[in-house]
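Supplementary Data S3. Sequence and structure tokens for construct A.
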Amino acid sequence: MPIFMDRHDVPNATAEAVAAAHQADLAIQSKYSCNCMTYWCDEQRGTAFCLIEAPNADAVRQMHRDAHGLIPLDVMEVDPATVAAFLGRLTTPAGHEPIRETAFRAIMFTDMVGFTDVTATIGDVAAYALLQTHHDIIRQDVEAHGGMEIDRAGDGFLLCFSSVTKAMACAVAVQRSFAAHNAVTDGHPIHVRIGLGAGEPVTDGQGLFGSTVNLTARVCGHAGADQILATTVVRELAVGKPFTFADRGKVALKGFAEPVSLCEVLSFQRMLLTCARRRLVITA
């Protein structure tokens, strides 16, 4: 049977109340040929997400209606491998404590700048070795910051983090790692661009984290070499955290009807460069 994820808006609901609703689902799931696999509860945002094996989306809605009356706003068929990659599990953790694990995730895209041109310059063999160095550096920092590798396409990565803080710390670490590598390498330097976004899994029917992934990919594509660009939601969630931002205004991104406000997360190297440019402007 297919697997569905649904979304419930439950303002002011506690984790205990969501856990009780899940137990009510379990009590009648067989009546609707469903298998309630697990759920996520975000008390702060007032949302809950259920993962259910079911014959169809209507069966999910009918089961919820009968069990507790909390009808989901959205029900979307999902790939279990993708759920596991983004959210880390497909079943309820051991024990009987109410789940207070949010399904909100920070998304990161990375892209190696100018790799096609580099390949034409240094040849396939040397380019392949350079690409492996690129992969190793990124994976090392992603692992150190608790990130998950969702996909790799050629010279870029799609990565996922449980918090915006971890994603930004990783992005800054990645840029610092490449700066350190470039300072000592005898070979071709590696430059990457990074895009950061954040959101919930079921919002628009475009697939798991669909709009967030699409937007973050466009943000990454808009970034320059050695730059980290982020959406405003990332900045808002980083209030009080030890990161420095610079406004980059509103930009038109392909696939989005309205211009998107972006900001830059400044790594130490970018901060030095920005300060140097400002001094040049002031001097001039």
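Construct B, processed identically:
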Amino acid sequence: MSSFDTAAFASCIGWSALAVAGVLLGTFVCAKIAGRHNVIDTGWGLLFVAVAVVTFFVSSGHGDPLRRWLLLVLPVLWGLRLAQHVGRRSLGKGEDPRYDDLLAKAKGNRDLYALRMVYLLQGVLALIISAPIMVGAFESDPVRVVAWVGVAVWLVGVFFEAVGDAQMERFRRDPANKGAVIDSGLWRYTRHPNYFGDACVWWGLFLLAAWTWPGWVFVLSPVLMTWTLAKGTGAPLTEKRMSGTRRGFAEYVERTSGFVPLPPRRRPIGG
């Protein structure tokens, strides 16, 4: 069994939590200036960038160097791309209805409620999901086949996210598509290629850390992310919003896989 410095790993969790808190505080300040809390959606990817950078430096002298570099570069590339995409998409727009609905439940100070129910909650979630990054950086075993499979899964995930987002942006820029639902490219095979890609990214990072026991213990992290995207606040809320605003959405749901990419279902003859 490979050596694993539990004390150094615990220290990494503490420093990562401080980094996440710093990103959240900066995001909250930006949200107050902008007058909308959906700025946190841009900050989401940056939370993982912060964890990856802190983990890389704190794990110096502990884990396998190649795995440490992979667990720095892959999350940073993913997080920066996501932050840039979400930030550019939200420029000039108002508050997301999700946050309006949530903050309407506040019985006292709305800012304190937002800090607790939006920022703190996402910070805790980010730390749990990023556990494979932290634990993997302290594994001293050399990178093996499972880890390279993880890199391949990560690449599949980034492809689905980036290409799916680009196809959606191109679709929305065409005035003829106003009020319509995209049914081309990757969106022909899954209603949520970006969410599916996001899940693949985190399964890939988990596989990078899964060779020894401290790594596979944290399988909860990709499971939690996948559940959040497929059944939690990801796909269900998106589809609830689209069902009343996009023409042809019900028919699109009937023929298109909800998450995992699959060939479109054919309508029965006479249906």
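The chain has a mean pLDDT of 90. Residues 157 and 198 are 6 Å apart (CA to CA).
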